[in-house]
Amino acid sequence: MKNRFLGLLLMFLAIFVWGISFVSTKIVLTELPPVSIAFFRQFVAIVPLLAFMLIRQESFKPDKGDLKLFALASFFGIVLYFVFENTGLTMTTASNASMLAAAIPVFVLIAESVMARRPISKPSLGCILASLLGVYCIISENGAIDLSGSTFLGNLLILGAMASWIVYTFISKGLGERYSSLKLTTVQTLLSIPLFIPFTVSEVPAWQVPSQTAFLHLLFLGVFCSALAYVFFLYSINTLGPVLPSASLNLIPVITIITGRIVLAEELTWLQAAGAVLIVGGLTLLSLMKLREQAQQRNGKEQSLK
Fold first, then answer.
1. How much is the average pLDDT of 54-62?
2. pTM for the whole thing?
3. Would you say 126 and 59 are in contact if contact means Cβ atoms under 8 Å apart?
4. Which of 23, 70, 233, 241 lies 20 to 30 Å (CA to CA) from residue 13?
């Protein structure tokens, strides 16, 4: 019971941390360039990640043959992802970015279906269409898309981050079968540091000593969002099982919307609110259907073994 309570506590803490990460990034963006923030964030994150690896006495060296895959995964899943996301956040709101990023599983499912030539069930298709409609509601203004607007460009960059993450999921799929999640995260974070350098060179003249507020938010992004929250969430999965933690991920945009309103005074139009409901609702139903399908498959295997 005690472990279960701790699992719940750490799960909600991880979700809360990830939910306000977009707001923290917006605050640091007032003092530092977008890509540089991501670069410094990895520097901060690698310290606790390596500490956790040492505690678990796990080697952080991948097999020599997998090094290229690790580098590619790091490039798409960390470097390109944050180049697009942080640059997009300079033009759009934290709420918009969080809601669009929440739709990543939908696009991953579509990509998997196309590549594997596997049909999507009608209930899943309904959830996907609802989420895509939600994405349209967010990137449009009053029902129409302004192609010349900076907010639209910012939203497009967030979608670019989503595309990078989709590529990352396919690259890292094989690696996930051979390495622990902690090792994957640690090695990819370590490799991302030199890979970020070409993208940060042009931003060096804009570097400055951050204020105490910006510095603390940068520490928060590295230590909590990129390291501790991951460990907390992994612990919750181990103690609670995958169902509740997976479903709780859909709360992230809700937390971002609330904190964005309180901290940044961001406004949410009725159309954006409708988009948020469609995305979160569609994803929640999709997650529950997928988890139920996995449970049925496990039960079927167990019965066949009897």
1. 85
2. 0.84
3. no
4. 70
